[in-house]
Amino acid sequence: MSLVRSVRSIGNGKLYFPNGHNDNSSLSTSIYTKNARGIMYATESSSTDSYDPKYLLDSPSPSEELLNISPTDALGNPFHQRHSSSFQPSRDYNQGSCDSGDFVNQSPDSSEYNDGRVTMKLQELERVLFDDNEIEGDDVCAHGETMDIDDEWFSQIRTVLLQDSPKESTSADSNISSSSSYKEISVTAPQTPKQMLFSCAAAIQDGNIEQASSVINELRQMVSIQGDPLERTAAYMVEALAARMATSGRGLYKALKCKEATSSERLSAMQVLFEVCPYFRFGFMAANGALLEAFKDEKRVHIIDFDINQGSQYYTFLQTLGSMPGKPPHLRLTGVDDPESIQRAVGSLNVIGLRLAELAKDLKIPFEFQAVPSNTALVTPTMLKCRPGEAVLVNFAFQLHHMPDESVSTVNQRDQLLRMVKSLNPKLVTVVEQDMNTNTAPFLQRFAEVYSYYSAVFESLDATLSRDSQERVNVERQCLARDIINIVACEGLERIERYEVAGKWRARMMMAGFTPCPISRNVYDSIKTLIKQYSERYTAKEEAGALYFGWEDKNMTVASAWK
C-alpha cells in the first residue's frame, strides 16, 4: 500500500500550518493564476468548500543516495573503507573526514594501538558513517532515559513476530568477526538510536541474528512513537528490522492489513497527511497543470488514469477546466483500477464515474467516463478503446512504482506498461512519484534511503502537528508504518513499494521512446506562490523540465511530463 495511494482524496476543509504560524484564510479558497492562454491553474487545498459535498465519497486513503556500502564495510569491518567505483558519499557525510590509510588491514584488537587511539578513531569513523551531529546531546541514551513502546500498533506487531521468531544462532561460523566489531564499537562509545539501527541492519545482513536481536531489544527500550521525529522514525524502523530478521515481513505486512482501520479513519488520516505535507499535493497540481495545457486547440480529449482510485484528483481538475474561458472540449476519462482493490469496498468505478459526471454536468463540461476494472499489468490498448480524433493524455500519479521491473521478473511489467502506453501515441504523459531509491538498491542502501526519506516526513509533521496529537499518531501508524515495513522487511514480489529516483525514471521513460516535455513556468510559479503560504521549509525547484517538491534540502516528490 503506497504512502500516497489515495492522496488524491478530497480535503476536509481543515487547514494546517506550521506551529506558531498564523492561519491564512486564503488557503481555504481556490487560488487561480491565469496565463496568456486564459488557462487558470487551481493551486488550492482541495477544500470541500469549493464544491458540493454530494460529490464526495467516504473513501479510504491508503498511502541522497547515501553511502553505498556492504554490511561488512558498514560495521562488520569498521577499519576498512570501501574503494568502489560506485561509492558516492552524500552531502550529509562530506563534513566528516577519515583517512582510510590509518585503518586498512588493521584489527581492533591489534596490539599496535592503545585504547585511546582506538577510541579516537572509532569515534571519528562513527561521525563519518552516521553524521549524528544533529542529535548530539539529545540522544536518549545520553540522558539514561527509557521510553516504553506500549502502543496497540506495536502490540500487534510483536504478536505476529513472536509467532515466527527464529531461534538464536548457535552456529560456530556465524560471522564472529563482524559480531566482535559491533560489540567493540558499542563498548567503546555509546551509540545513538540511529547508529544502533544501522548496526542492527548490518548485523541482519551478515546473518548475525544474536547481535541483531540484542540491538532490537535495546532500541525498543529507548525509542517511542510519541517522541521526537528521529525517535518516531527509529521506533517504526526497528519493528521493520525485527520483521525482516524473523523472516516474517510478508506475514506481518498481511497481518497489519487485516487490522486496517475503518475507511473513515483511514480517509481522515490521509487527508491530514495531505494537508500537513503538501509536497504530495504539489505533485498532483503539477500534473493537472500540464494536462490542462495539453487541452489547447483540442476538441476532444481522452485522459487515461492508471490508478484513478476514488477519482479525487479530477474534482479540482474539472473545476479548473470549467473556469477556463471559451467552450471546453469534450472530455472522456478512462479510470483503471484493480477490482480487488480495498478501495472498491467503498465505491465501484462506475459510482466514481457517476459522481464525476454529475460535477461535470453542473460545470457544463461535455464529459464521459469509462471504467476499466483490471489489474494494470493486464490492460491492453483494446480495453482502453481510444477513438480517432481524440488527443490521448495519460496520467501516472504515484502508480508506476508498484509495477515490478526486470529486477523482480523477466516479464518486466514496468517497462512493458510504458511501451504499451507509447503505442497509443499519446500527446502527453504525466508521471508523479516519490523521489527515493527502494527498487534495486541492496538492502543496506535501501535501509538508508528509507531512513533518510521517512525521517524527513516525520520532521515535516513535527512542524505542524503537536507530538501528542492523536491525528498525528493516526497518520504515522496508518499511512507511513506499512510502507516502511514493506520496503525494509519484504523482498521479491512481496515488496511492492519500489520507488526510483528521478534520474532512473528519466532513463526508463526515454528507453520506452518518450521525450521530456518541460512543465511550464506558469505551473511552477503558481505552486511556488502557494508554497510561500505554508512554510519556507517547503521547497520547489525546476530541473531538466521536471518539478521537484521537498522538505528543506530533501526532495520528496517529482512531477514530470513526456510525449
TrEMBL record:
Region listing for SAW, in residue ranges: 489-563
Compositionally biased spans, kind Low complexity: 56-67
Pfam families (UniProt xref): GRAS
Gene Ontology biological process terms from the UniProt entry: regulation of DNA-templated transcription
Residue ranges of the region described as Disordered: 44-115
Family to which the UniProt record says this protein belongs: Belongs to the GRAS family.
Name this polypeptide is given: Scarecrow-like protein 1
UniProt source species: Capsicum annuum
Taxonomic classification: Eukaryota, Viridiplantae, Streptophyta, Embryophyta, Tracheophyta
